[in-house]
Amino acid sequence: MKEIIDVGLKTRTVDLSKCKTEMLVAGLFSDVRALDRTCRELNRKLDGAIEKLIELGDFKGKEETGAVLYGNERIGARRVLLVGLGEKSKATLDTVRRAAGAAAYKAVEMKLKTISLMLHRAFGGRFDLAAMGQACAEGVYFSSYRYDEFVTEDENGRLGSLSVELIDSDSAKTKGLSRGLLSGTIIGKAQSYARTLTNRPGNVMNPAKLAAAAKKLARSSERLSCKVFDEKQLAARGMGGLLAVGSGSQNKPRLIVLQYSPAAKLKSSGPTIGLVGKAITFDSGGLSIKPSDRMDQMKLDKTGGLVVMGTIKAAAELGLPLNICGVIPAAENLPSGTSYRPGDIVTTFSGKTVEVQNTDAEGRMILCDALSYADKQGCDIIIDIATLTGACMVALGKYKAGLMGNDDGLIKQLQKASEQSGEKVWHMPSGDEYAKEMKSKIADLKNTGSKWGGACTAAAFLRQFVGQSKWAHLDIAGMDMLEEAAGLWTAGSSGFGVRLLTTYLMNLAGKKD
To answer: Given 44, 78, 158, 290, which residue is catalytic?
Structure first.
């Protein structure tokens, strides 16, 4: 299979007019009348080309817009890309991230080998340089990503690598940018890793193959370990939820436990973090089968599990002083003569019984076993992430993930990480009134509630399996997938959650850059 684009990032101290590069990238705000110092200098060396572009109305500085100008003998760059930054009064670190992403996307489309970014200069001292360096790296990785592992045609194909540098004429500023560049590179690579494995189709990535990938990841770091429970071990432990969902497929379920332990000198007495990710490698809905339209997208129902793997990969490479336990229940939800049925009563790992009313409400059936496992492993904080409910998309569209939980402090920490990472969440309820809807008359619980508030009732169901742990639930349905290519991304897995969860962990560890 073809490797994804190899992206390299570095900083360089160089005068913009002397910077030899295939494309020099600068940013412009839509609500700032006068050109800033950087663009004034470029405009002068380009014989007023930037001012002419603006006067003609061909470039207005709006977000996700850009214009390419061509260099001359007065600058070292062969091209100059102007990227719109939107309104300066509304600028955030995500503005930096998206602008860098727009430049990287354009570079891949133009088949350029090297580009040089000086986007940070447009923001003055508004943001910390290290934070901008990290945001640039994350944006570059996100938008340069292409999933084409199985494309064998090479004619007019994309290049195999892209070299990106952050430049400034002031060495103190490039040093500041470089402080965040390493973290951003690690996080960006981890997100690309999660996206690639998530994008792989069901005939390539089944539960056993996912478990093998987790073991391979564990071998990449002495700080990681992995154990996998097969169907016999799951049965011996009474993990009825996971076994039920996987019962219809010849590809049997697995429970993957990926453990990160920091180096001895970094060990802390802080909380043990449990990250639980839903990994349905393909979801047909089981006997409660889904419509055929767009069922091909159900390979992405493993997003939560791969986000957990990507996050732990990042944590290990960042060397965070935290103990992290990743728990990934993996199954394939298919209909057959051995499938679990509506009306079945399943005994879960916790001992609680669940009446199955809909086999397409399978995510909560595998997560309940994984959450109970994390709780029994002594995790003080448990965060689960899952493409769980269409109801969350009804509530929030494809703009934010649903965030629920039982601890206000944890909710606020994740909201802060959301703002920093640019992966947006919205706090939703999951209290006792929703839990009442999940009570069954013939078992302890049922796996569906009423037609209303489905994201909230699903979260309330999960809450029954976390014991006394602090817990948060991220419903990323709608955020897991980019349906069509745009000026910032290509279609397929988004890897949503890697930046969010890694930022949360970095904050918890007190690691700033």
So the answer is: 290
Question: pLDDT tens, 25-73?
Answer: 999 999 988 899 999 999 999 999 999 999 999 999 999 899 999 999 9
Residue 203 structure tokens? 């005939």
Half-sphere exposure of 357 (CA within 13 A, CB side): 14
Task: Give the residues across from 162 on adjacent strands.
Answer: 7
Asked if the domains at 6-169 and 196-509 fall in one CATH topology, the answer is: no
Domain ranges of the chain: 6-169, 196-509
> What CA dihedral angle connects 393, 396, 399 and 400, to 10 degrees?
-100
Separation of alpha carbons 438 and 364, rounded Å: 12
On the 0-12 / 13-18 / 19+ scale of CB atoms within 10 A, 34 is exposed
d(Cα 334, Cα 244) in Å, to the nearest integer? 11
d(CA 299, CA 196): 12
pLDDT tens digits, residue range 186-204?
999 999 999 999 999 999 9
- Give the Cα separation of 474 and 172 in Å (integer): 39
Give dist(CA 477, CA 449) in Å, integer.
18
CATH classification code of 196-509: 3.40.630.10
What's the order of all strands across the beta sheet hosting 79-84?
6-13, 161-168, 114-117, 24-28, 79-84, 66-70
Phi-psi region of 47 (alpha: psi -120 to 50; beta: other; left: phi over 0): left
Separation CA 511–CA 159 (nearest Å): 35
Q: Is 398 in contact with 453 (CB distance < 8 Å)? A: no
Distance set, CA 406 to CA 253, 285, 508 (Å): 29, 29, 18
pLDDT digits (tens, 9 = 90+) for 239-288: 999 999 999 999 999 999 999 999 877 666 689 999 999 999 999 999 99
pTM of the model: 0.96
Q: Which of the following is catalytic: 173, 364, 400, 499?
A: 364
Cα-trace Rg, the chain: 24
Name the amino acid, one letter, at 155.
E
End-to-end CA distance of the chain: 34
Report the alpha-carbon angle 353-255-471, nearest 5.
65
- In angstroms, what CA-CA distances link 363 with 170, 204, 332, 425? 52, 21, 11, 20
- Beta carbons of 414 and 428 less than 8 angstroms apart: no
**Beta-strand pair 470-475/161-168:** unpaired
CATH superfamily of the domain spanning 6-169: Leucine Aminopeptidase, subunit E, domain 1 (3.40.220.10)
* CA 67 vs CA 27, 161, 434: distances in Å: 10, 23, 51
| Count of C-beta atoms within a 10 Å radius of residue 127 | 16
Separation of alpha carbons 391 and 512, rounded Å = 36
Active-site annotation holds for 44: no
78 included as an active-site residue:
no
